[in-house]
Design brief:
Radius of gyration: 33 Å
Largest sheet: 9 strands, antiparallel
CATH architecture of the largest domain: Beta Barrel
Helix content: 10-25%
Number of strands: 20
CATH class of the largest domain: Mainly Beta
Order of helices and strands: HEEEEEEEEEEEEEHEEEHEEEHE
Structural class: alpha+beta
Strand content: 25-35%
Distance between the termini: 113 Å
Protein backbone atom coordinates (compact mmCIF):
# COMPACT_ATOMS: atom_id res chain seq x y z
CA UNK A 1 0.00 0.00 0.00
CA UNK A 2 1.22 3.42 -0.66
CA UNK A 3 2.43 5.33 2.35
CA UNK A 4 -0.14 7.63 3.75
CA UNK A 5 1.20 11.17 3.66
CA UNK A 6 0.44 13.50 6.55
CA UNK A 7 -1.58 16.50 5.55
CA UNK A 8 -1.23 19.80 7.35
CA UNK A 9 -3.87 22.49 7.57
CA UNK A 10 -3.53 25.23 5.02
CA UNK A 11 -1.88 28.45 6.29
CA UNK A 12 -3.64 30.66 3.77
CA UNK A 13 -6.43 31.86 6.10
CA UNK A 14 -3.87 32.82 8.74
CA UNK A 15 -1.87 34.85 6.27
CA UNK A 16 -5.05 36.53 5.10
CA UNK A 17 -5.95 37.57 8.67
CA UNK A 18 -2.44 38.89 9.27
CA UNK A 19 -2.64 41.03 6.18
CA UNK A 20 -6.01 42.38 7.32
CA UNK A 21 -4.60 43.43 10.69
CA UNK A 22 -1.70 45.15 8.91
CA UNK A 23 -4.14 47.04 6.68
CA UNK A 24 -6.17 48.15 9.72
CA UNK A 25 -3.04 49.34 11.53
CA UNK A 26 -1.86 51.26 8.48
CA UNK A 27 -5.29 52.82 8.13
CA UNK A 28 -5.28 53.93 11.75
CA UNK A 29 -1.82 55.46 11.35
CA UNK A 30 -2.90 57.27 8.21
CA UNK A 31 -5.98 58.63 9.98
CA UNK A 32 -3.82 59.89 12.86
CA UNK A 33 -1.43 61.57 10.43
CA UNK A 34 -4.29 63.16 8.50
CA UNK A 35 -5.94 64.45 11.69
CA UNK A 36 -2.59 65.78 12.99
CA UNK A 37 -1.89 67.57 9.74
CA UNK A 38 -5.41 68.98 9.72
CA UNK A 39 -5.03 70.32 13.28
CA UNK A 40 -1.62 71.80 12.44
CA UNK A 41 -2.96 73.44 9.28
CA UNK A 42 -5.98 74.70 11.21
CA UNK A 43 -3.81 76.23 13.93
CA UNK A 44 -1.44 77.67 11.37
CA UNK A 45 -4.37 79.06 9.43
CA UNK A 46 -5.87 80.56 12.56
CA UNK A 47 -2.52 82.06 13.55
CA UNK A 48 -2.09 83.52 10.08
CA UNK A 49 -5.60 84.77 9.50
CA UNK A 50 -6.17 86.03 13.03
CA UNK A 51 -3.05 88.18 13.29
CA UNK A 52 -0.21 88.14 15.74
CA UNK A 53 0.76 89.75 19.01
CA UNK A 54 3.74 91.66 20.43
CA UNK A 55 5.07 91.21 23.94
CA UNK A 56 6.81 94.06 25.76
CA UNK A 57 8.36 94.67 29.17
CA UNK A 58 10.55 97.39 30.69
CA UNK A 59 14.15 96.88 29.46
CA UNK A 60 15.37 97.07 33.06
CA UNK A 61 13.58 96.15 36.29
CA UNK A 62 14.88 96.87 39.77
CA UNK A 63 13.90 94.31 42.40
CA UNK A 64 14.62 94.26 46.11
CA UNK A 65 15.67 91.42 48.38
CA UNK A 66 12.83 89.97 50.47
CA UNK A 67 10.37 92.50 49.05
CA UNK A 68 8.06 92.45 46.05
CA UNK A 69 8.37 94.61 42.95
CA UNK A 70 5.56 95.05 40.42
CA UNK A 71 6.10 95.80 36.72
CA UNK A 72 3.74 95.97 33.76
CA UNK A 73 3.92 93.43 30.94
CA UNK A 74 2.01 94.37 27.77
CA UNK A 75 0.45 92.20 25.09
CA UNK A 76 -0.56 94.06 21.92
CA UNK A 77 -2.58 92.20 19.30
CA UNK A 78 -2.20 93.08 15.63
CA UNK A 79 -4.26 92.42 12.51
CA UNK A 80 -7.37 91.43 14.44
CA UNK A 81 -5.64 89.08 16.88
CA UNK A 82 -8.11 88.07 19.62
CA UNK A 83 -6.73 84.80 20.97
CA UNK A 84 -5.64 83.94 24.50
CA UNK A 85 -1.96 84.58 25.30
CA UNK A 86 -0.56 82.62 28.24
CA UNK A 87 2.33 84.28 30.09
CA UNK A 88 5.17 82.41 31.76
CA UNK A 89 8.63 83.24 33.10
CA UNK A 90 11.90 81.38 33.45
CA UNK A 91 13.78 82.71 36.48
CA UNK A 92 16.68 81.60 38.72
CA UNK A 93 15.91 79.54 41.80
CA UNK A 94 16.19 82.46 44.21
CA UNK A 95 13.82 84.71 42.22
CA UNK A 96 10.03 84.38 42.21
CA UNK A 97 7.78 85.70 39.45
CA UNK A 98 3.99 85.65 39.14
CA UNK A 99 1.56 87.18 36.65
CA UNK A 100 -1.85 88.68 37.31
CA UNK A 101 -3.62 87.82 35.13
CA UNK A 102 -1.63 84.99 33.56
CA UNK A 103 -3.87 84.83 30.46
CA UNK A 104 -4.64 87.84 28.27
CA UNK A 105 -7.09 87.84 25.39
CA UNK A 106 -6.10 89.97 22.41
CA UNK A 107 -4.58 93.12 23.87
CA UNK A 108 -4.00 93.88 27.52
CA UNK A 109 -1.57 94.15 30.42
CA UNK A 110 -0.47 91.93 33.26
CA UNK A 111 1.23 92.78 36.54
CA UNK A 112 4.51 90.93 36.98
CA UNK A 113 5.41 90.60 40.66
CA UNK A 114 8.97 89.57 41.51
CA UNK A 115 11.24 89.24 44.50
CA UNK A 116 14.73 87.91 45.21
CA UNK A 117 16.23 86.24 48.26
CA UNK A 118 19.68 87.81 47.86
CA UNK A 119 21.29 90.64 45.82
CA UNK A 120 22.44 90.23 42.25
CA UNK A 121 21.83 90.73 38.54
CA UNK A 122 19.58 88.08 37.04
CA UNK A 123 18.70 86.72 33.62
CA UNK A 124 14.98 86.08 33.17
CA UNK A 125 12.87 85.29 30.13
CA UNK A 126 9.20 86.22 29.86
CA UNK A 127 7.26 84.29 27.23
CA UNK A 128 3.80 84.70 25.75
CA UNK A 129 2.25 81.70 23.96
CA UNK A 130 -0.90 81.45 21.86
CA UNK A 131 -1.27 78.31 19.76
CA UNK A 132 1.78 78.18 17.51
CA UNK A 133 2.68 81.80 18.23
CA UNK A 134 5.41 82.39 20.80
CA UNK A 135 7.21 85.62 21.68
CA UNK A 136 9.73 86.30 24.44
CA UNK A 137 11.45 89.26 26.07
CA UNK A 138 14.45 89.25 28.42
CA UNK A 139 14.62 92.39 30.60
CA UNK A 140 17.63 93.11 32.81
CA UNK A 141 16.61 92.39 36.39
CA UNK A 142 18.83 93.46 39.29
CA UNK A 143 18.84 94.57 42.89
CA UNK A 144 20.20 98.08 43.56
CA UNK A 145 23.79 99.00 44.33
CA UNK A 146 24.10 101.07 47.50
CA UNK A 147 26.40 104.02 48.15
CA UNK A 148 27.08 105.58 51.53
CA UNK A 149 28.08 109.18 50.87
CA UNK A 150 29.85 110.73 53.84
CA UNK A 151 29.33 114.48 53.62
CA UNK A 152 29.62 117.71 55.54
CA UNK A 153 27.29 120.63 55.05
CA UNK A 154 30.03 122.91 56.32
CA UNK A 155 28.68 122.68 59.84
CA UNK A 156 27.08 119.22 60.07
CA UNK A 157 28.75 115.92 59.15
CA UNK A 158 26.94 112.66 58.48
CA UNK A 159 26.04 110.02 55.89
CA UNK A 160 23.55 109.95 53.05
CA UNK A 161 22.65 106.45 51.84
CA UNK A 162 21.53 106.14 48.23
CA UNK A 163 20.44 103.21 46.10
CA UNK A 164 21.59 103.08 42.48
CA UNK A 165 19.40 101.61 39.73
CA UNK A 166 21.83 99.34 37.89
CA UNK A 167 19.00 97.48 36.11
CA UNK A 168 17.72 100.60 34.32
CA UNK A 169 21.04 102.52 34.09
CA UNK A 170 23.81 99.89 34.02
CA UNK A 171 26.51 102.00 32.35
CA UNK A 172 25.85 105.03 34.55
CA UNK A 173 25.96 102.99 37.76
CA UNK A 174 29.08 101.11 36.66
CA UNK A 175 30.81 104.43 35.97
CA UNK A 176 29.76 105.85 39.35
CA UNK A 177 30.90 102.72 41.20
CA UNK A 178 34.28 102.73 39.43
CA UNK A 179 34.83 106.39 40.29
CA UNK A 180 33.81 105.89 43.91
CA UNK A 181 36.04 102.87 44.36
CA UNK A 182 38.98 104.81 42.93
CA UNK A 183 38.36 107.57 45.53
CA UNK A 184 37.52 110.06 42.77
CA UNK A 185 34.74 111.72 44.79
CA UNK A 186 36.77 112.13 47.97
CA UNK A 187 36.86 115.75 49.23
CA UNK A 188 34.97 117.24 46.31
CA UNK A 189 32.88 120.33 47.03
CA UNK A 190 29.14 120.53 46.53
CA UNK A 191 30.02 123.23 44.05
CA UNK A 192 26.51 124.11 42.90
CA UNK A 193 23.61 124.93 45.22
CA UNK A 194 20.60 126.13 43.26
CA UNK A 195 17.40 127.47 44.77
CA UNK A 196 15.88 127.98 41.31
CA UNK A 197 16.69 124.63 39.69
CA UNK A 198 16.37 122.98 43.12
CA UNK A 199 19.49 120.83 43.02
CA UNK A 200 22.75 120.37 44.89
CA UNK A 201 25.58 119.22 42.62
CA UNK A 202 29.06 117.73 43.00
CA UNK A 203 31.58 115.63 41.09
CA UNK A 204 33.91 118.31 39.69
CA UNK A 205 37.57 117.45 40.40
CA UNK A 206 38.50 121.14 40.09
CA UNK A 207 36.70 121.71 43.39
CA UNK A 208 38.68 119.14 45.37
CA UNK A 209 39.51 120.47 48.84
CA UNK A 210 38.04 123.81 47.79
CA UNK A 211 40.69 124.36 45.14
CA UNK A 212 40.27 125.41 41.54
CA UNK A 213 38.58 128.63 40.56
CA UNK A 214 35.32 129.36 42.37
CA UNK A 215 34.90 132.79 40.76
CA UNK A 216 33.55 133.09 37.24
CA UNK A 217 35.69 134.89 34.66
CA UNK A 218 34.20 136.11 31.36
CA UNK A 219 37.59 135.53 29.74
CA UNK A 220 37.24 131.80 30.34
CA UNK A 221 40.04 131.13 32.78
CA UNK A 222 40.78 127.52 33.71
CA UNK A 223 39.22 125.40 36.36
CA UNK A 224 36.00 127.26 37.12
CA UNK A 225 33.85 125.09 39.36
CA UNK A 226 31.35 123.05 37.39
CA UNK A 227 33.46 122.70 34.24
CA UNK A 228 35.54 119.67 35.25
CA UNK A 229 34.84 115.96 35.09
CA UNK A 230 36.32 112.49 34.73
CA UNK A 231 37.81 111.13 31.53
CA UNK A 232 35.12 108.53 30.86
CA UNK A 233 31.89 109.71 29.18
CA UNK A 234 28.63 107.89 29.83
CA UNK A 235 25.89 107.44 27.20
CA UNK A 236 22.52 108.83 28.24
CA UNK A 237 20.29 106.22 29.93
CA UNK A 238 16.72 107.33 30.59
CA UNK A 239 15.29 103.99 31.73
CA UNK A 240 15.13 104.96 35.41
CA UNK A 241 13.94 108.50 34.59
CA UNK A 242 10.76 107.01 33.10
CA UNK A 243 10.10 105.06 36.30
CA UNK A 244 11.39 107.20 39.18
CA UNK A 245 11.55 110.70 37.61
CA UNK A 246 13.42 113.83 38.67
CA UNK A 247 11.64 114.31 41.99
CA UNK A 248 12.90 115.25 45.44
CA UNK A 249 15.60 112.85 46.60
CA UNK A 250 16.53 111.31 43.25
CA UNK A 251 20.05 111.50 41.82
CA UNK A 252 20.67 112.54 38.22
CA UNK A 253 23.67 112.92 35.92
CA UNK A 254 24.79 116.43 35.04
CA UNK A 255 26.05 116.97 31.48
CA UNK A 256 26.67 119.50 28.74
CA UNK A 257 24.57 120.11 25.64
CA UNK A 258 25.60 116.72 24.25
CA UNK A 259 23.26 114.14 25.81
CA UNK A 260 26.15 111.65 25.92
CA UNK A 261 28.60 113.98 27.66
CA UNK A 262 27.99 113.01 31.31
CA UNK A 263 31.13 112.00 33.22
CA UNK A 264 31.38 112.36 37.01
CA UNK A 265 29.15 115.26 38.02
CA UNK A 266 25.80 114.36 39.55
CA UNK A 267 23.04 116.23 41.34
CA UNK A 268 20.45 115.52 44.01
CA UNK A 269 17.00 116.96 43.43
CA UNK A 270 15.84 118.97 46.44
CA UNK A 271 12.30 119.41 45.10
CA UNK A 272 10.04 118.06 42.36
CA UNK A 273 11.96 118.65 39.10
CA UNK A 274 9.93 116.64 36.62
CA UNK A 275 10.64 119.11 33.79
CA UNK A 276 14.20 117.69 33.87
CA UNK A 277 12.75 114.39 32.63
CA UNK A 278 12.30 115.91 29.18
CA UNK A 279 13.93 119.36 28.92
CA UNK A 280 17.02 119.39 26.68
CA UNK A 281 16.22 115.74 25.79
CA UNK A 282 16.10 114.75 29.44
CA UNK A 283 18.48 114.26 32.35
CA UNK A 284 19.18 110.72 33.49
CA UNK A 285 18.04 109.67 36.94
CA UNK A 286 20.19 106.81 38.25
CA UNK A 287 19.49 106.59 41.99
CA UNK A 288 17.66 107.97 44.99
CA UNK A 289 18.27 108.85 48.63
CA UNK A 290 16.96 106.17 50.98
CA UNK A 291 18.45 107.35 54.29
CA UNK A 292 19.39 110.87 55.38
CA UNK A 293 18.95 110.91 59.15
CA UNK A 294 20.74 114.25 59.63
CA UNK A 295 18.77 115.95 56.79
CA UNK A 296 22.05 116.77 55.08
CA UNK A 297 20.51 117.22 51.63
CA UNK A 298 18.29 119.95 53.06
CA UNK A 299 21.16 121.46 55.05
CA UNK A 300 23.39 121.70 51.97
CA UNK A 301 20.55 123.16 49.88
CA UNK A 302 20.24 125.94 52.49
CA UNK A 303 23.97 126.73 52.46
CA UNK A 304 24.88 130.36 51.74
CA UNK A 305 25.95 131.15 48.16
CA UNK A 306 27.81 134.03 46.49
CA UNK A 307 24.91 136.32 45.65
CA UNK A 308 27.12 139.42 45.85
CA UNK A 309 29.00 138.55 42.66
CA UNK A 310 28.13 140.57 39.54
CA UNK A 311 28.12 137.33 37.56
CA UNK A 312 25.06 135.10 37.67
CA UNK A 313 27.29 132.03 37.30
CA UNK A 314 28.63 132.72 40.82
CA UNK A 315 25.19 132.90 42.43
CA UNK A 316 25.09 129.11 42.93
CA UNK A 317 28.66 128.82 44.28
CA UNK A 318 28.79 128.09 48.03
CA UNK A 319 30.60 130.29 50.52
CA UNK A 320 32.91 129.14 53.30
CA UNK A 321 32.75 126.92 55.27
CA UNK A 322 32.34 124.70 52.19
CA UNK A 323 30.10 121.64 51.97
CA UNK A 324 32.04 118.52 50.89
CA UNK A 325 31.67 114.93 49.81
CA UNK A 326 34.13 113.28 52.18
CA UNK A 327 34.03 109.69 50.89
CA UNK A 328 31.76 107.39 48.90
CA UNK A 329 31.56 103.72 49.92
CA UNK A 330 29.88 101.10 47.70
CA UNK A 331 27.97 98.04 48.93
CA UNK A 332 25.52 95.56 47.41
CA UNK A 333 23.06 95.34 50.28
CA UNK A 334 21.47 98.09 52.38
Amino acid sequence: MPEIQKRFPSTKPVKRKSRQRTYVLISIILVIIVVGVAVYVSQLSNSTTRGDFALSAPPGITIWTNATTTSTISVNGTNGFNQVVKLSAVVPNNVTATFNPQNITGTGTSKLTMSATFPGTYSITITGTSGLLTHSVSPVVATPVYANISVTSGTITGTIEVELFRAETPMTVTNFVNLAQSNFYNNLTWHRISSTTHVIQTGDPYSRNGGGNRTYSPTGECCFWGTGGSSQKVPQELGATKVYHNVAGTLGMARGSDVNSATSQFYVNTADNRPLDTVNQGYAVFGRVVKDPANLVQAISNHAVNLSSPYEQDHEIPLDPLPYVITVTISYSP
